[in-house]
Amino acid sequence: MAKRDTLFQIEELAKLSAKTLRDKTGKDWDEWILWLDMRESEESTHKEIVASLADDVESAWYRQKIALGYREVKGLREPGEVGSGYEIGVTKTFPIPLRKAWEVMSSEEGLSIWLGDLTKGRISQGVSFKTKHGISGTVNVLEANSHFRMAWKPANWRNSSTLQVRVIGSKAKSSNKSVISFHHEQLPRAADRAAMKKYWEEKLSQLAEIIKGKSGSL
């Protein structure tokens, strides 16, 4: 297939290089964009684009990437949009070492702030839970001093999202600092992305208050 007559070749889209895309699928970004243009894919949804690639791209992951890249270059993707919805990430650095930050996040007081007071279940790998405010989910991964990964669903949402809460220690041995991050995936709408970004930023601010109160004795 002939490439489009362009001044600059596209080197990367959807965090995937043109070289890798060609190696894995036989076409680079310019060629896939031309291929999709010829099928008038600009008016198609993400799912429709993915489906149109089924006979030509064996890997479902690369079909998703090509669709994301095409929508990106056409200006059809909104900030934070991925194939499974929208996602956001927020982080904050705290003046305590990783071990102490993890103790705060996994303590009853810390959990009540960022997750909520439990009315059902417990925070343990493979266990489902529900909070006083109607948030339900299942803890899929719990790795001490590292991260939680869980299904997370408010009462008024139709489907679950994926929430990962991570504590990261400073690489400098002399530093007693750590980062707490919330990464929220599979949000259904752009409005949910904006709302959840504000929500998790507020949770980090609330955590900062209790960490500030404890930091003198840590």
From TrEMBL:
<dbReference type="InterPro" id="IPR013538">
    <property type="entry name" value="ASHA1/2-like_C"/>
</dbReference>
<feature type="domain" description="Activator of Hsp90 ATPase homologue 1/2-like C-terminal">
    <location>
        <begin position="97"/>
        <end position="211"/>
    </location>
</feature>
<dbReference type="InterPro" id="IPR023393">
    <property type="entry name" value="START-like_dom_sf"/>
</dbReference>
<protein>
    <recommendedName>
        <fullName>Activator of Hsp90 ATPase homologue 1/2-like C-terminal domain-containing protein</fullName>
    </recommendedName>
</protein>
<dbReference type="Pfam" id="PF08327">
    <property type="entry name" value="AHSA1"/>
</dbReference>
<comment type="similarity">
    <text>Belongs to the AHA1 family.</text>
</comment>
